[in-house]
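Person: At home tonight, work slowly through the protein below, taking as long as you need, and write a paragraph about the fold.
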Amino acid sequence: MEFLNSDLFRYMLLPLFIFLARIMDVTLGTIRIIFVTKGIRKIAPIFGFFEVLIWLLAISRIMQDLDNWVCYIAYAAGFATGNFVGMYFEEKLAIGHELIRVITRKDARELIEELRTKGYGVTSVKAQGIEGEVAVIFIIARRSRIQEILDMINRFNPRALYTVESIKYVNREIFFRSENNRKQRRLDRIETRDNIKQ
């Protein structure tokens, strides 16, 4: 009990505990909100349970030391850091899918062919822009694949206009075929070509 009343505990260890607890609960809260917006409803309540449990531990400890201003600083710093850590983890997890809409005046057949070769589902339509006819291309992809597609678009036409929008729900994952499927199709094509030669 003496240790719990010591300056070392009250002004160093307790604020550190509160700081780390806030990082954990805010990080869990950030990820939980993202799961809810992405329609992943089964996991979100589990994150919510631990989020509130950790928050209660932190706030109850602060209420026991209302005159300890270091705990308030630790609480606020933990909240701010938790937001940053939560966004970092969310970015690394890259949960969900996004829609890329590309508008280009340049003939888009080359880009469409490259996207399809890489296994992406592509829908394209002709449209009328302010300066004449344009191609509008729609691509749905996992968030982890977005940068790869944007690099392809920029290589094809750096002046193309594109937007990236978050999608809450996709009913079928037809937009990116696995590497194994692509390899198998390549082997099938080679085998077919060899059979024709014979």
About this structure: The chain has a mean pLDDT of 82.
